[in-house]
Amino acid sequence: MEEMASISLRRCESQTELTDERAHGLFVVIGGMGDLTIRHEKIPVSMGRCYYAAPGAKATAFPHFNSLDLYHIRFDRWRKSENDRREPIRIADLSEWLPEGELNAGDEGRYLELANALHGIVERDELAVRRRRLLFQELLYECVRAAVGRTAEQKDSQGAVRRTIRYIQEHYREELHRDELAKRANLSPEYFSQQFRAVSGSSLTDYLAGVRIGHVKERLLFTDERLAEIAKSVGYRDEYYLSRKFKNVTGMSPSAYVKSDKKIVSLNPHLTRHLLALGIVPAATLTFPWGFGDYQKRMDEQGCVCRSWDKGFSDEELLRMEPELLLCIDNVSPERLSFYRVICPTLVIPWYLSDWRGHFREVARAVDRRTEAGSWLQAFAAKADATRNAIREAGGVERTVLIYNVRSDAAFVYRNRAMGSQVIYDELGMRMPASVQARSAQGNFIPVEPEEVLPAFSADCILLSVDRSPEARQRAECMLKSSEWAAYGSLPGKSVREVDMARWHGYDPLSILWQLEDASRLFALREYK
């Protein structure tokens, strides 16, 4: 039998020790990117993934460039003694059914869903205790199910050289020599060199230099580390040797590289809008159906390749583009991230670990536009202050505002991070309905069907956004024509204002600015006096 001892949320902003001498440990990543070392085996981690460490196994988290948030679930396993009247016997070895390391279930969202639910339970009564145990048992089931698949995969070896390449990618900071790597692959040094070139397309020396210089590029662009610190972190003896190696590989000095214009591919439309706010048009980007507003013409003129966000770019397309910088958020798997980082430096924005301003500053640092970002944020703050004062004079801040979005197959009430909620509630200080505040445990957005909105979520003003699909528009029209909505609209001081989803969907500088401008037109009016 198993018994969960505790679940805690850990924010790792630097190297963090997670070892537990007595309890088994499950680690479910909430956000951020980094590495988790279990018994000296380094494992790249990402959002939604789950990892297991046995009691006493040395476990350490290493965040990449920013913090790494995870749930640490501690538990014990017991079996009955031969004589049931004696104390149960504690089991420390679960290797037969739960091997240490990553537990890849295929649906990482399930791990996070169960861990979130466990963390949210308060054991006020017996029902809550039972609910907690059931959720924990379900989480363990998912872990064991994943472990079965992992064991089968390990038996199907990908080849000695490919395993060595993965080892190099994880241990590039260390001194690596051909003979030792050949011994690890169980091959003679000469045959190892031949096979390595056949598999990787380059010599061991060139491949290792490329891996190290790739990490140097990322640290130059994404951190404020000094060159001496970077040299040490990637396995070079000092900054002078690093500079020579860097120039040999790239043709320019580290400082010149930081300031150089780069061919950028954005794998997230929100991050593309960060670039546009900084005056940069990427070479290629994923896009939402409504595009990039007034910026679309400029992007088309500069030859930016736009691809629907739900289709994406194939591996072959990315390789042909030869990007010099990739942008994405932390919903990418470790496997995909490894592929991206082989191509070029890849900035991973931790979506839920900071707000849009934090995202903006991270992007600005990567493209050497921090001064421009500071000026943009300063101008936005002044505009937000002016809008807030105008709305206050019009009496708008005293009214409650509900933010509701209708799509073809779903509908949501928003609390934070999208559909203008950041602007309405945080930037402008307008009031959130009490019914929405009471649902804070449900996250940033709450699924609510159109027929369930009124009267449960009534407010002085309802901001309605509708997806551009015919199905979503039909759902919204049926909702607005219903008796409940007609009665609501006839009440004094009540109103429904429809806003453009193309402007209100995003969580990025341009979208936030558009939402602020629309809010000024909607609420800074005399009619609110």
TrEMBL record:
Q: Keyword Cell cycle on this protein?
A: no
Where is each Fe/B12 periplasmic-binding domain found? Answer: 263-527
Q: Which UniProt keywords apply?
A: DNA-binding, Transcription, Transcription regulation
InterPro entries linked: ABC_transptr_periplasmic_BD, Homeodomain-like_sf, HTH_AraC
Offer one Pfam family short name for this entry. Answer: Peripla_BP_2
Instruction: List each copy of the HTH araC/xylS-type domain by range.
Output: 162-260
Note the Gene3D superfamilies from the entry: Homeodomain-like, Nitrogenase molybdenum iron protein domain
PANTHER family reported for this sequence:
ARAC-FAMILY TRANSCRIPTIONAL REGULATOR (PTHR43280), HTH-TYPE TRANSCRIPTIONAL REGULATOR EXSA (PTHR43280:SF2)
Record-given protein name: Helix-turn-helix domain-containing protein
Q: Which organism is it from?
A: Cohnella cellulosilytica
Taxonomic lineage of this organism? Bacteria, Bacillati, Bacillota, Bacilli, Bacillales
